[in-house]
Design brief:
2 strands, two-stranded antiparallel ribbon, 4 helices, 42% helix, 99 residues
Length: 99
Amino acid sequence: MGDWICEKKYDMEITHKYAKCGTAACIAGWAWKLTNPTEPMPWSGDVATEVLGITLDDRNRLFYWQSWPAQFGGYIDNGTKKSAKIAAARIEHFIRTGE
């Protein structure tokens, strides 16, 4: 995971599509942005871990798609609606099962 939050207006090197809001964010990035909308995201997953109240093991299972269960293996971090739906399903699965 290279960036927690990318904003099109600041990062012209990103080649994937952005949502209409002009941002693309991982689970950690969104956890931070939704609870601290006007603050810049610190360069650490620790703050998002704290915001969500999860353990370090949970963080690794949730934030890093390489650690996701096999049924979410089609995820590609490319800013598309398909990727967003897979990530949302992953979050729901994590909430339901803790894995």
